[in-house]
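thought: fold this chain, then report.
action: predict
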Amino acid sequence: MRGSWSGMKACMWPSVFFRVLLVGLVLSGYGHAGEQPRVLVLFSNDRLLPANQELEKGLRRAFENGGKTSSVDLFAEFLDAVRFPGPGQSATMENFLRERHRDTPPVAWIALGPQALDFLLQRRDTLFPGTPIVFGAIDGRHVASLTDRRGMAGRPMDWSITPLMEQLQEIRPEARRILLVSGAATFDRVRHEDALAQAGPFRKHYEIETSQGEPLDDLLERVSKLPRDAVVIYLSYFQTPDGRTLLPRSVAGWLAEKSSVPVLCLYETYLGTGVMGGAMIPFEEEGHAIGAIARRVVEGEDAEAIGILPPGQARWIIDDRAMKRHGWNQRKLPPASEVRFREPTLWEAHRTGVLAGVAALLLQSVLIIGLLAARARQRSAENEKQLSESRFSKVFTGSPVSISIIRQNDGRIIDVNPAWERTTGVSRDAALGRTHLELGFGFEGSGDQRYLEYLASGKALRDFEQRLRMPNGSCRLLSVSTELMNLHGEPCYISMAKDITDMQEAEEARQKLQQASRLGMLGELAASIAHEVNQPLGAILSNADAAVMMMELPDPPLDEVREILSDIRRDDMRASEVIRQVRSMVASGEALMVPLHPGELANGVAAMVRHDCKRRSISLRCDIADKLPQICGEKVRIEQVMLNLLLNAMDTLKEVEQDKRHILMAVALTDDGRVDISVTDSGPGIPPDLMERIFENFFSTKSEGMGLGLALSRSIAESHGGKLLAENVPGGGACFHLILPPCP
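observation:
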């Protein structure tokens, strides 16, 4: 034997040297000719099979060099042996390959699948003789049966079901039945026979049933009725009994959809169709390993010297969705298992959002606890005041708010406190038993008639501002809140009037001082906010005083007191909301582009200036179109532009007669689908010679203006992908258009 082996080696060395030299010469010839050496990849089956696509992907990745494909032409051909079996088809294919690649013969073959390898081995001396063959995707038993391995290299692919069935006992111990499924093609039959032979040692643990070449409809009906202790092992299904060719991956999806139990498989390409998975070798990894062998051959190594390498190791690959659907425990999987299609948890997908939400919840909890504590202290103080009728009387007489009690049926005054006497200049004795009209009080416009109608309506007032002419001839601005209740058996109004004339005058003076050091827009905003906060605070105080006074009565009306307390809480929340809006307008922070509803923005900004409009006798109307799209932007900055346009419009109406002061804020769609937010005033309009300059920095038509508002507003509009335009309205007035694109 030793001598024989030495003789064989002596014979082999010239052959090996000749092949290496031949490959080198071929590669050198290609290099000189400027052409790439060709490696022919011959697939056994259809090019559309996902397994073939994954194998080819791995092959090409193996020939990449530093991110660039090496100078080798990987050319794929397909026998499609399932649909075109028989020697006649093989002969036709041989002639086709010879003629097609005659001008560029391959430097190496890559045979993928048993049919491709058998085809080349039968024609190694007639179809490009001497060309080395690298094989893959072939069962180990088929490789072991090869007797002539001249010029061959490669590695088998382990498709045995043994690893799957060995580990299935640990993963799914309750399984007792296994159904092996395959189609009617020759490949299906061979795989089925191999699987049955490999399943022999496991028959003591499982009841093994088979379905080979069963009609597809019958098979689907069968798997839908399997008991809970069964498992389906799907091998392949290339062909139906009547000869119809199918894609095995498609059949895998149909089985998974109909089966009442998990469907296991041996091929990675079936994953994603609903099957569970199994112990398998990914085709792309296998293609990369085969490509690495082929690259060694192309680069000069002798294929026969490389020889047949051991197969890769299978590992469990599982579809997480199918595992959850059938109640499998992931902790029972082998350590090296791979779980695919796993949906991330809320924490994994939205970690930042969860942290922000928890932080916001904690902050909100702290604020709620603080508010509840403050409310408890306030309620405790009110309960103490309600204990004594004398203390109620002291509050009534000592209150700085003007309080009067008026009978509803005739409007006559029943009682007043000292603050009312100081505010009106009328003594208590002179007021008792008389009406406001008899005392000489005057209301704006047709106020006398409206006052009588109000008495008859029985409605309550909340922070109603009314300019009232006093009997001594002076005019005062009052913030009035009233409540109707039964006193001594008859309905009476408790009227609380706070004189805000001095406060208004002081606020106007303060605004003028602030205009010298601040931007005009912020000054106007501060004035509006001062009024907005003052009203709920005044109402809280007035309601509290009224509640105290009512509790001093012999038979306190508790229901009305509860309503007053509810009003106090509402006014407190209103004041808090005003403060929140102010803080959002001036707070610094990272810009946040969020979807916004333009109609809600317009209504919100209009609400901020509505008090100022009322004070200036300006009619403000909002016209919001239906079905408006959302816009994306920074809420505070867009509100800043809209507020600036409204304040400018209000300023232009100073010299206009009161009954002609009108502002229209409209939100509509343009012809090209963008959102148009317009502010139209009834003022004198913009002088034509200044129309081009109004958006310049530091240019202003107001003596106290800084000339930054419109320039900043246009910059904000452009940063949001929009624009800010101005035009004069026929008949008088100006109109500004803030045009913004909708959210994508």
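thought: worth noting. Confidence is low (pLDDT under 50) at residues 1-34, 513-521.
final: tokens above.
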